[in-house]
Amino acid sequence: MTLEEGTVQISELFDIRITNDSGRACFANRDLKKNTDVLCLKKCLGASTCYEFRKEVCSQCFRYEGGRRMKVRLDNKYPKGAGLWFCTENCRDQFLRQEHVDHLTDAYEILLVNWEAQAKKRVGRVDNASNTSASTEEIESLWQDIRDNWITRIDCMKPTKRASQLPIINEDEYVCARFVIHCLFTLETSHASSLQMTAFRNLQSNESSKIMKFPVLLDLQKHVFQTLYILLPSFLRPKFDIPTYRHILGSEYGNSFGIWQNEESSDSREYLGYWVLPEASFFNHSCAPNLIKHRAGNQMVFTLNSDVLKDQELCIDYKDILHLKVDERRRILKENWFFSCECSRCKLETQIN
Ligand SMILES: C[S@@+](CC[C@H](N)C(=O)[O-])C[C@H]1O[C@@H](n2cnc3c(N)ncnc32)[C@H](O)[C@@H]1O
């Protein structure tokens, strides 16, 4: 992934530069004091709640009340409530104040209607993954087949016939489809030159490493694509093409943040879902991070935990692994994020060992 230095200025406090061994990274462009918020993000590209928590997490602020169902829904215009649940009327109203939001809720509702209509067909069904391995050639060949054969066939069908071509999707695919809908909505309603869009276009994709490790994702990607190709309302269609779809998912694999329950300690909190915050995705991992990330409702704040000098790299902890030994930390990062950690602490501890 290339990025001309200086083309994305995420914050006045740091610059993005290219490093020798860890891609692009963020560097303080002045001395900064402990407790400085170097980045505060109020809008994500896309988010999705885990299926099991879909009724228990506020769709606006991600509040979770220990398993209690959220009380507030959309009004009667959406018989299924578009799969949205809110902790308060205030949160619902804030959600509804987004420009063009009807197009987002329409898409969620259509997906949910289809999801529920497929319920009987899912009973007793075992997902037999057709892919047990995947190479970059196989990934490309899947997309070529979809482009040259499947899309061509669907485009020739009458709209009423297309529904018969919908794949039966599972919970993970439903959650992924909602995430992609949210991203497409953000892409469609944002200015191409906005900071978030520029950052999104420049995100590193982890498509091939992730799919090679979990080949089942190829089926998931195919099913979600086919579902959205048939169901998406017209407002979201202009941004929905194969390269954009692959970039959305490839970026999610390499850059998404977990949406965690806030009140609990890190070993007992629930993983509620995930979201992609493009402007925060140029922070590298360090096993001695100088930034703490904190979610406050639907805002994400990155705060310095120590004084930092000009030109020092700004890093976060990706995996809550700071208490582990170097080999274990490196193994976890390799398995989950597909990189060998080159942070200063790992380098030092590797030399000592
Ligand atoms: C969220 S992105 C961070 C920005 C990334 N460096 C880029 O150029 O887009 C995560 C990726 O950055 C790289 N990375 C992050 N922390 C690293 C580290 N400590 N050592 C080596 N590579 C790292 C890995 O390629 C990882 O998949």
From TrEMBL:
InterPro entries: H3K4_H4K5_MeTrfase (IPR050869), SET_dom (IPR001214), SET_dom_sf (IPR046341). SUPFAM superfamilies: SET domain (SSF82199). It comes from the Eukaryota. Residues 12-319 form the SET domain. One of its GO terms (cellular component) is nucleus. PANTHER family: HISTONE-LYSINE N-METHYLTRANSFERASE SMYD, POTENTIAL PROTEIN LYSINE METHYLTRANSFERASE SET6. This is LAQU0S01e05314g1_1. It comes from Lachancea quebecensis.
